[in-house]
């Protein structure tokens, strides 16, 4: 347990005496974690007892945890992490979902819980930050702030007082103990795990979603590339991917990918912003991402990962993730707690609750009950305030497009592919590589040969596909902005080789003058078709002619129609034969 005998100023944690760090250290500087982070030392010389968690408890008057103070084990079993379980029931990560209206002390209780996790488990706490919320500020002297390197970050103080203008923050590093930057979501998850244990990490999500699509493409849980579109890449009225979706990729990275499996807990306030009650399969694949998050949640225990969510009301979040939580917390918001005799009060995923009477309606802020389906435990928390922190302001971090953003949106530098992520999603699996039109559009292009396989239908009413053409070894895909009557390029797709008449994959030596006969010495095994088709589904010649005409027409520069006088029958026959051979 976290009971320490020290020679410090005082170990009184009842708030009646003031504690201060020894040896002229400032808050957060002299602890074991602080010295490693600030002095970059592999081995520090701080006393073993002097941890971040201990100093935070002394500073804020939080008593050492006493499991014997609880008549039932649901609270200590959820707090104390073991693998395998020796003293308590649960093995591995744990979870709870906290429910309470505004003003009932949820954020302060969250800070208490984070400090407890650090103190009992030497655990890495990840506070899921929101750009317009900063409830973590009371503990900022101990915070490592994780910011996305591929985004602009503008910080300002916003005041409650009417008429007072926001104030810019000149250097955000002056506000916290340490600031770290990450390039992509997997690097963020791995870097946090390499950070000293027993630390409080405030993580801001990346609006560029760097690495998120690649992570889902490689995951066995998804079977596809899930879309993550920055706001500045969005097209039409759809808008960019909600910033909260970054946490789905982080959770996937933490549970499945990182190799350092030290204890980690995510504390996520406003959990309903991640999965709202009306979550559906929209253009951002929100429903599919929710399913992936739930699947990772099922395996989080073995990965020593815990997730603690907070919502205002049960029905604000989707039923599916709510069913994943084994433990609930009922907060003192003036409403009755769930009761076994009131079926409608029992939370999603529970068949019953151990409380049969209302014991929470008249509770004051500072006390709550934690419960599962068999037992409950009342508990209290301490108000966490820093004397230097003003309560009439909040820190706002505006995360946006990086100042040096590349104009060629959606570039894949390795293969020269360029595409607009507001229109397309790339999918890769084994030897297949495709560019799918984002929902609710349809169709895709085979990136192995640059061919349109299924008819392209726009994902936005404001845009319409307007043909393709082969230029300098690339298939260029056009769309028309219907509101402005302007054409825009939405993809440039490298084609492996350009043969006769711009037909990709056909070299001059592979075709004779008639362009319809088979060539004896041609190797057709790997030859891509003009329009790739399923080998098991051969189109009739008449349909093939239509497809070939469409294909030949699309190869012409925009503005030139395909007149009967321009169309050579041999051209159509040749294209149709290539399609049929595909």
Description:
The protein is of the alpha/beta class and 582 residues long. It folds into four domains: 1-64, no CATH class; 81-400, Rossmann fold; 408-496, no CATH class; 513-582, no CATH class. 19% of the residues lie in helices and 21% in strands. It contains eleven helices and 21 strands. The chain has helices at 32-39, 52-60, 74-79, 106-121, 185-194, 212-218, 246-257, 286-298, 319-322, 541-554, 569-581; strands spanning 95-99, 124-128, 143-148, 152-159, 167-168, 178-182, 200-203, 264-268, 305-311, 328-330, 367-371, 376-380, 393-400, 418-419, 424-429, 432-437, 442-446, 451-457, 463-471, 474-481, 486-494. The chain has a ten-stranded mixed β-sheet, with helices on both faces. Strand 8 (264-268), helix 8 and strand 9 form a beta-alpha-beta unit. Helix 2 packs across helix 4 and helix 5 crosses helix 7 (246-257). The longest helix has 16 residues, at 106-121. Mean pLDDT is 81; it is low at 1-16 and 498-582.
């Amino acid at each position: 347990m976290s009971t320490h005998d020290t020679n410090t100023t005082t170990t009184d944690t009842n708030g009646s005496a003031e504690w201060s760090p020894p040896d002229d250290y400032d808050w957060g500087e002299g602890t074991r974690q602080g010295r490693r982070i600030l002095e970059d030392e592999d081995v520090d010389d701080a006393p073993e007892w002097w941890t971040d968690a201990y100093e935070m408890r002394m500073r804020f008057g939080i008593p050492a945890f006493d499991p014997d103070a609880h008549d039932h084990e649901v609270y200590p079993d959820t707090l104390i992490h073991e693998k395998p379980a020796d003293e308590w029931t649960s093995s591995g990560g744990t979870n709870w979902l906290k429910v309470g209206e505004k003003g009932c002390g949820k954020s302060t209780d969250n800070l208490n819980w984070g400090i407890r996790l650090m103190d009992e488990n030497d655990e890495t706490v990840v506070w899921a930050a929101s750009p317009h919320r900063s409830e973590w500020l009371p503990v900022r002297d101990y915070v490592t702030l994780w910011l996305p390197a591929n985004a602009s970050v503008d910080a300002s103080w916003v005041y409650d007082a009417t008429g007072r203008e926001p104030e810019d923050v000149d250097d955000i590093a002056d506000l916290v103990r340490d600031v770290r930057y990450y390039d992509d979501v997997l690097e963020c998850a791995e870097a946090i795990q390499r950070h000293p244990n027993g630390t409080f990490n405030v993580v801001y999500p990346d609006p560029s979603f760097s690495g998120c699509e690649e992570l889902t493409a490689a995951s066995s849980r998804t079977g596809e590339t899930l879309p993550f579109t920055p706001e500045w890449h969005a097209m039409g009225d759809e808008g960019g991917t909600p910033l909260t979706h970054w946490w789905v990729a982080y959770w996937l990275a933490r549970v499945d990918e990182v190799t350092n499996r030290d204890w980690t807990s995510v504390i996520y306030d406003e959990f309903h912003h991640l999965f709202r009650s009306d979550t559906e399969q929209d253009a951002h694949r929100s429903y599919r991402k929710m399913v992936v998050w739930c699947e990772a949640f099922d395996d989080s225990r073995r990965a020593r990962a815990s997730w603690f969510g907070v919502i205002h009301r049960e029905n604000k979040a989707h039923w599916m993730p709510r069913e994943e939580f084994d433990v609930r917390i009922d907060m003192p918001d003036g409403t009755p707690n769930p009761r076994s005799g009131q079926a409608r009060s029992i939370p999603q995923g529970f068949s019953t609750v151990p409380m049969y009477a209302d014991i929470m309606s008249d509770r004051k802020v500072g006390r709550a009950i934690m419960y599962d389906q068999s037992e409950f435990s009342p508990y209290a928390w301490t108000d966490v305030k820093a004397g230097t922190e003003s309560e009439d302001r909040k820190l706002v971090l505006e995360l946006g497009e990086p100042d040096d953003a590349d104009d060629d949106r959606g570039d894949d530098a390795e293969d020269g592919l360029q595409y607009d992520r507001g229109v397309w999603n790339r999918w890769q699996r084994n030897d297949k590589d495709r560019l799918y039109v984002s929902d609710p559009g349809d169709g895709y292009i085979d990136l192995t040969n640059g061919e349109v396989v299924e008819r392209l239908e726009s994902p936005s009413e404001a845009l319409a596909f307007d043909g393709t053409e082969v230029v300098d070894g690339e298939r260029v895909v056009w769309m028309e902005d219907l509101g402005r009557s302007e054409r825009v390029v939405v993809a440039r797709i490298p084609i492996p080789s350009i043969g006769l008449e711009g037909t990709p994959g056909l070299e001059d030596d592979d075709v004779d003058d008639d362009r319809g006969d088979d060539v004896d010495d041609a190797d057709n095994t790997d030859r891509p078709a003009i329009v790739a088709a399923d080998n098991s589904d051969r189109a009739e010649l008449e349909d093939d002619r239509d497809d070939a005409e469409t294909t030949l027409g699309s190869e012409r520069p925009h503005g030139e129609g395909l007149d009967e006088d321009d169309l050579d029958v041999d051209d159509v026959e040749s294209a149709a034969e290539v399609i049929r051979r595909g």
